[in-house]
Design brief:
The protein has 3 helices and no strands. With 59 residues, the chain is an all-alpha fold. Helix content is 83%, strand content 0%. The termini are far apart.
Length: 59
């Protein structure tokens, strides 16, 4: 990936992490899997966060 593409990916990852509460590493992984399609990224990030929150409720 070019430097510009990598910068765009990092910016998207930071934004996705900030908007959904997942980590930047998780956001980068989603971008690697799904590409830069923002609606898909938001959907999957929110699902990932919900699963994480659900794990904390189990004893």
């Amino acid at each position: 990936m070019s430097d510009n593409g990598e910068s765009s990916k990092n910016n998207q990852a930071r934004s996705l992490a900030r908007d959904t509460g997942i980590t930047e590493a998780q956001a980068r992984e989603l971008i690697d899997l799904l590409g830069m399609h923002r609606p898909s990224l938001l959907r999957e990030a929110r699902l990932l966060k919900q699963r994480e929150l659900g794990k904390g409720k189990q004893s």
